[in-house]
Amino acid sequence: MSEHLPSPEAAPTDLASRREQPHVGKTEQVYRYVREAIEAGTFAPGQALPESVLVEQTGASRTPVREALRRLAADQLVEISPRRAPIVTRLSLRQARSLFDYRRVLEPAAVRSIVARLGEEPALAARFTAIGEGFDGLVDQPYSPAFADRFSELTRSFDETVVELTPNEYLARAIVDLRPHVSRLRRIAHADVGRLAESVREHIEMCRAIVDRDADRAAAVCTHHLFHVDQAIFAALLSSSRQSAAPVDIEA
């Protein structure tokens, strides 16, 4: 629901930690590993993912690697073609616009449903009060690595709280399923310091509207926020598409 800043040190989750979870099968381990790497930008759009390399990196055999890649292809994160290594799906301007059109349907609806839920469970409003106060602390602060880290922490908390408190599980799942696609768009978009300041204020407004149980205002601010995020990312993608090596399809 909000733009998280890319972390230069972002890397796939260590598979050693996955092996310590016996209830998670090998296919699931590989799936999560590759999905998180794509989401973090460690596996970049257009990058080849040879099975042999994934076998070496994950310690899994070829069968779970292939099964994980098929799942990722169903998620539209990986492209599989005959006689060539799977590749991380390239980004496209058309898909980016479609994604944000969809988000503007899902996320305001989620916010409205949360406001309705607060009528029966008012104590939950404290979650958004705390997040809003966190954003208040960023107002008028100059950009810095500490600002970026705190911004990412708060936006992640806001997004996760929205998903957690959305009473309709199908609506919540739809939002979660978009996360890796949204994260990939954020990774290729150049950070806009001025846009971040606007986003801080928009999150404050969303939190206040939710706490005030004003569903119309909360949904309107959410839609306004997503429109601005869409414009900023779309402009960055359009700029990237003009660079010869940019992994963006302008027509696709």
UniProtKB/TrEMBL annotation:
SUPFAM superfamilies: GntR ligand-binding domain-like (SSF48008), Winged helix' DNA-binding domain (SSF46785). This is DNA-binding GntR family transcriptional regulator. It comes from the Bacteria. InterPro entries: GntR_C, TF_FadR/GntR_C, Tscrpt_reg_HTH_GntR, WH-like_DNA-bd_sf, WH_DNA-bd_sf. Residues 24-91 form the HTH gntR-type domain. Keywords: DNA-binding, Transcription, Transcription regulation. CDD domains: WHTH_GntR.
